[in-house]
Design a protein that fits this description.
Distance between the termini: 71 Å
Number of helices: 1
Strand content: 35-45%
Order of helices and strands: EEEHEEE
Number of strands: 6
Organism: Sorghum bicolor
Helix content: under 10%
Pfam families: OB_Ssb-like
CATH architecture of one domain: Beta Barrel
Oligomer: single chain
InterPro entries: NA-bd_OB-fold, OB_Ssb-like
Protein name: Single-stranded DNA binding protein Ssb-like OB fold domain-containing protein
Length: 170
C-alpha cells in the first residue's frame, strides 16, 4: 500500500495553504479567549477629532462637520465608468473649516447645510494646501443636524505648507 496522502487531503499542521482547494478535516481548533464569545473581532470606539487638529499627510481621521458650500469642479461622462464627478466642498465645525474633495457618489451626500460624519478620512495635499478626502477605505455618513456654530475664520485649507528636506548634521 502507498504511504502518500490521498488526493484532496491536507496532512500538514495548522491551516491549509490559502487558495489550494483543501478543506480541514475534523473539528476546527478552539479560538483564543481574547475576543468576544462569538468569535467576532472587537471594534474600537472611534476617536473624534476636530478640524483644527488636522495636519498634512495624516490619515484615519473621524470627524463630524457641517457642509457650508459645495462647488462642482468636474462632471463628465465616461464610457467605461459611467460618469465622473468631482466637487470641492467647504465643511467645518466649531474650530475651523477645511475643503473636502468629494468624488462620484460622495457629491450627493455633501449637500449644503447637512451634517456629516467622515470616517477614516485622510489629508491630501493639493498645491501646498490641505484637502480632506475619503477613499474606498473610508465612509461619509449623513447624520442628525449638529448644534455647533461653524467657525469660518479659521480655514485650514488657506494655510500653505512647504515640504522641506532636513539634512541631519553628524
Amino acid at each position: 500500500m502507498s504511504t502518500a496522502p490521498r488526493r484532496g487531503t491536507f496532512r500538514g499542521r495548522g491551516a491549509p495553504p490559502p487558495g489550494t482547494g483543501y478543506v480541514r478535516r475534523g473539528p476546527a481548533p478552539a479560538p483564543a479567549a481574547t475576543g468576544p464569545a462569538d468569535g467576532a473581532k472587537a471594534l474600537r470606539k472611534p476617536v473624534f477629532t476636530t478640524v483644527d487638529q488636522l495636519r498634512p499627510q495624516t490619515h484615519g481621521h473621524t470627524l463630524t462637520a457641517r457642509v457650508i458650500s459645495a462647488r462642482t469642479v468636474l462632471d463628465k461622462p465616461s464610457t467605461h465608468l459611467g460618469r465622473t464627478r468631482v466637487a470641492e466642498c467647504l465643511v467645518g465645525d466649531s474650530t475651523g473649516t477645511v475643503l473636502v474633495t468629494a468624488r462620484n457618489e460622495q457629491v450627493d451626500l455633501l449637500e449644503p447645510d447637512t451634517t456629516v460624519i467622515f470616517r477614516n478620512a485622510k489629508i491630501d495635499m493639493f498645491k501646498g494646501t490641505m484637502r480632506l478626502a475619503v477613499d474606498k477605505w473610508g465612509r461619509i455618513e449623513v447624520t442628525q443636524p449638529a448644534d455647533f456654530k461653524v467657525n469660518q475664520d479659521n480655514n485650514m485649507s488657506l494655510v500653505e505648507y512647504e515640504l522641506v528636506d532636513v539634512d541631519e548634521e553628524e
